[in-house]
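Q: Two folds, back to back.
A: First:
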Amino acid sequence: MATKRTCMALDLIDNAGLIASYEHYHQPGNIWPEIPAGIRDAGISDMQIYRIGPHLFMIVEHDDSTDLPTAFNKMATLPRQDEWAAWMGTFQQKLPEAAAGEHWATMKPVFLLNDHLQ
């Protein structure tokens, strides 16, 4: 099955203490076990979050048959996912490009090397 990659962006509140807390809660052993289990149960095979300053960049990998909005909606119905999202929302700033009710905004690809190779 083909894998699809979706990239998303988000800004944290620009406060060193809040940013440090956000990173702390995402370290192994600190994230609630229901969170990675719920991500996988929703059809997401991998998720990575990177940070530069207060800016976050998330890479979500899923198979072609997984519709990402549907996967995120499913995650919200799984144990503790909504609670985690609400808590993490206290560290985040909604991007203007984000959909209603969301903090993360899907990024538009600008350059894909494979599109330029023959």
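A: Second:
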Amino acid sequence: MNTPASRTWPVSVKGVVLDHRDRVLLLRNERREWELPGGRLESGEEPAECVVREIEEETAWKARTGPLLDTWVYEPLPGRHVLIVTYGIHLPDADAAPVLSHEHCEIGLFTRAEVPDLCMPDGYKRSVTAWFDHPARTA
């Protein structure tokens, strides 16, 4: 009897970060899409630790993990799948300007009203909306 081959996908942990003016931080990648800051979960690392580490590496912002917002499977390229895990993020020093790392082409801060029209996967847009509407956002 033939059994299907087991598939494993990388896990990318992303954060929805708002600045002091309630603008969401997004990074433009090499595919010219906007994405949330974050990255690949490393062996032995907890998802909440991963997203805090990645946000600091990509923006120099010190973050604190909030609630889990969403999980979904993304296909950035045909046949390549990534499990996306998103968290709401609290930013203790929301007045500091983010710093662009070498990992992205551009950094941007966008209002809630601007997000729907951006070139960005719908899963990220769902996560942004979920954090804007989440009761723990202002905690």
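Q: And?
A: The longest helix spans residues 47-59.
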